[in-house]
Amino acid sequence: MSKTFTKNIPVNEILHLDDRLEYKEGQVISITIAQNERLSITLFALPKGEEISTHVTVGDAIVQILDGEAHIVIGDVEHNVKAGETLIMPSEVPHSLDARENFKMLLTVVK
């Protein structure tokens, strides 16, 4: 029997990650898929107008946009990102996110 290192998501099955979360008005929804001392993988859904305020992470944060559009600020650089795009936020650089429309992302933090 093999050991599974992921959680909260089926294994050995084709998935559409953007279908794993529903939008909820006024709430940021997340599902942790994997987490250990070197790696964190989390799915997020933010309804239009929700935000993640300025913060820093210890590790590079790779954002893969699954649905919608958001405004992401990394340090002093502003980005408008949309479905199908990927953005890397470097370790220990302040960043924030504002959902310009309903927005889903897969966030991978590598330490």
In the sheet with the most strands, the strands line up as: 1-2-9-4-7
Beta-strand content estimate: over 45%
- Arithmetic mean pLDDT: 96
Compute the separation of the termini in Å.
29 Å
What gross morphology would you assign?
globular
Q: Considering DSSP H and I runs of 4 or more, what fraction of the residues is helical?
A: under 10%
Q: Which radius of gyration do the C-alpha atoms yield? A: 14 Å
**Main beta-sheet strand count, sense and barrel state:** 5 strands, antiparallel
Q: What's the number of extended β-strand segments?
A: 9
Number of helical segments with 4 or more residues: 0
Structural class: mainly beta
Low-confidence region ranges: none
H and E string: EEEEEEEEE
What does this structure look like?
By secondary structure, the chain is mainly β. It contains no helices and 9 strands. The strands form 2 sheets. Strands 1-2-9-4-7 form a 5-stranded antiparallel β-sheet, with no helix packed on it. Strand 1 and strand 2 form a beta hairpin. The termini are far apart.
